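Structure in, sequence out. Go:
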């Protein structure tokens, strides 16, 4: 993410409360264009938006973890 105006899309499986919490935390850090994909990852795929699969790292974090910068 390079500027406060960079668009950030946050999603979980269904566009639920976890995604909304993360988007709020991202906005609180100064990235004002953070959006939640309401229909989640399934909606992203149904809209035929690009998906890149990787073996990247994954870990669980709460919205509080993100808000604290951990």
């Amino acid at each position: 993410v390079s500027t406060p105006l960079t668009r950030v899309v946050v999603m979980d499986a269904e566009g639920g409360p976890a995604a909304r919490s993360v988007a709020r935390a991202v906005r609180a850090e100064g990235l004002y264009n953070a959006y939640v994909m309401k229909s989640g990852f399934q909606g992203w795929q149904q809209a035929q938006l690009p998906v890149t699969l990787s073996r990247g790292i994954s870990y669980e974090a709460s919205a509080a973890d993100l808000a604290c910068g951990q």
